[in-house]
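ARCHIVE CARD
CATEGORY: sequence design from structure
SOURCE FIELD: tokenized fold
FIELD CONTENT:
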């Protein structure tokens, strides 16, 4: 027997379906214009790694070879197909993420319109169109925004499961929920948190899904089994990676309580950095979310949305105790739930209050997104490879094989060349490599026996970057001891240094498996 759902009064019927579709189309066009207009800037290290993995054949991406990489292969596969069709450029590589962001707008619009009305759906589309957070992650040539889309689809299915009265409609909801959840896991490993979140949230708010007591608990169990079976290959790969760490997660450190809280709040409220001028936007989103949660406290869809937020947060915090994963990029999909609540709060307003709310959100978010532009993820690899390539005698020293691969990818994207026009020399210190996914994959350096052998007049340039500062490797070899070893905040090229530096480095190191090994 269906439990009584104490729903709110239905919002006004305006706009009709055609008006709602027009509003959604306008929001998508605005979002697309903003995202595309700001997309032409240099990729950063992780994005260059995406280009590398997307260049691999499918049998590698979907086989045991991927044990070296902690991220699943679905995004890399999609990116590979896009590169095959459109080629390589900074702005072009960002198009798949932009499309995923726009698709998420449409998915969320439909889901919100069905459960909270078209007025609320228009508010959701407006917030997403002008969201600084959506701008930032739609530009990332990484899987995060595709994961967001997958979980948005899955959440739409979950709402259908919870709220549908007809068996056929609920069956479709289960199919959409499972498909989105599986796609999420194959986008990013932390996507596994979503089906656990959805299962616990559904059992918490709706007794029909509680084990042994509810009439639909078997369907919930079968959905969980289907997700586990469909994602079993990557779950097994993740287990093998956790039992044999390769250094890919070595850079992730705990953020501390204060920074974690700030990142959590900003992410949930569609923000990035928060300044005085940007503060109105998250405050408005928070206020409308609180209004939506309060007014809809008797509504099943509202309760489920709020439960997903609380349970998902709790699971992230619990897993973070074992491995730091509480980052803006991993918790991005949690922002779905405050968004839905805020849209519900706006949609319930009447008359001029509704129009005033939309105008206030548009103005506040517009200011915030304009101020976000200087804070988009930037590492000027274009300048790195362009400056180095300008010297025909250049040899670029880098820290580790992953940095060597990233440099080669930067040459492909920024210089439109299959290989860098200068020597790339990876230096590797004893012990595990940070970003161990690159181990054994960098192009071999020139050597005679075990001694580095470059052109006699080669001049050394040092590529210094956070977490990968080659100056430390050079100093470990007993050279450039007087140089300041303060780690830079962004990639910077130091040099040129005379050929004597390379000669001295060759005498103090040895080449093993194509890389320069630096002794302690």
């Amino acid at each position: 027997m269906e439990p009584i759902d104490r729903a709110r009064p239905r919002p006004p019927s305006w706009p009709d379906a055609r008006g709602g579709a027009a509003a959604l189309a306008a929001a998508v066009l605005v979002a697309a214009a903003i995202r595309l207009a700001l997309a032409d800037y240099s990729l950063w290290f992780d994005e260059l790694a995406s280009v590398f993995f997307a260049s691999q054949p499918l049998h590698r991406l979907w086989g045991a070879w991927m044990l070296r990489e902690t991220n699943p292969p679905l995004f890399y596969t999609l990116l590979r197909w896009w590169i095959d069709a459109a080629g390589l450029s900074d702005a072009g590589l960002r198009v798949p993420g932009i499309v995923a962001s726009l698709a998420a707008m449409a998915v969320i619009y439909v889901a919100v319109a069905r459960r909270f009305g078209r007025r609320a759906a228009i508010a959701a589309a407006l917030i997403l169109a002008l969201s600084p957070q959506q701008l930032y992650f739609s530009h990332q040539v990484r899987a995060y925004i595709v994961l967001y889309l997958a979980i948005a689809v899955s959440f739409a299915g979950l709402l259908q499961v919870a709220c549908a009265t007809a068996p056929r409609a609920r069956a479709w909801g289960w199919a959409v929920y499972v498909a989105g959840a599986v796609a999420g896991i194959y986008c990013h490993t932390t996507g596994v948190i979503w089906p656990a979140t959805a299962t616990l949230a559904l059992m918490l708010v709706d007794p029909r899904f509680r084990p042994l007591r509810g009439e639909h608990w078997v369907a919930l169990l079968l959905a969980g089994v289907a997700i586990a079976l469909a994602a079993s290959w990557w779950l097994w790969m993740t287990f093998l990676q956790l039992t044999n760490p390769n250094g890919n997660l070595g850079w992730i450190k705990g953020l501390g309580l204060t920074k974690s809280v700030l990142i959590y709040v900003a992410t949930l409220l569609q923000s990035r950095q928060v300044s005085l001028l940007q503060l109105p936007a998250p405050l408005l989103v928070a206020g409308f979310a609180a209004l939506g949660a309060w007014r809809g406290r008797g509504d099943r869809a509202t309760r489920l949305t709020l439960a997903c937020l609380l349970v998902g947060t709790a699971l992230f915090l619990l897993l973070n105790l074992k491995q730091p994963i509480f980052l803006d990029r991993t918790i991005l999909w949690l922002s779905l739930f405050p968004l839905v609540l805020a849209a519900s709060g706006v949609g319930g307003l009447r008359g001029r209050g509704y129009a005033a709310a939309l105008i206030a959100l548009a103005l506040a978010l517009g200011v915030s997104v304009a101020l976000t532009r200087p804070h988009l993820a930037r590492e000027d690899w274009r300048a790195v490879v362009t400056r180095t390539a300008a010297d025909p005698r250049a040899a670029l020293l880098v820290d580790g094989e992953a940095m060597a691969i990233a440099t080669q990818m930067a040459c492909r994207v920024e210089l439109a060349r299959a290989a860098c026009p200068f020597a790339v020399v990876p230096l590797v210190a004893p012990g595990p490599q940070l970003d161990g996914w690159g181990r054994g994959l960098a192009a071999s350096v020139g050597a005679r026996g075990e001694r580095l052998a470059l052109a006699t007049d080669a001049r050394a340039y040092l590529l210094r970057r956070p977490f990968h500062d080659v100056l430390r490797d050079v100093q470990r070899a007993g050279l450039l001891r007087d140089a300041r070893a303060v780690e830079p905040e962004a990639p910077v090229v130091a040099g040129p240094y005379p050929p004597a530096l390379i000669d001295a480095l060759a005498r103090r190191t040895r080449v093993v498996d194509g890389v320069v090994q630096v002794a302690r």
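CARD ANNOTATION: The CA atoms of residues 394 and 459 lie 5 Å apart. The first strand starts at residue 394 and ends at 399.
SHELF: design records, drawer C
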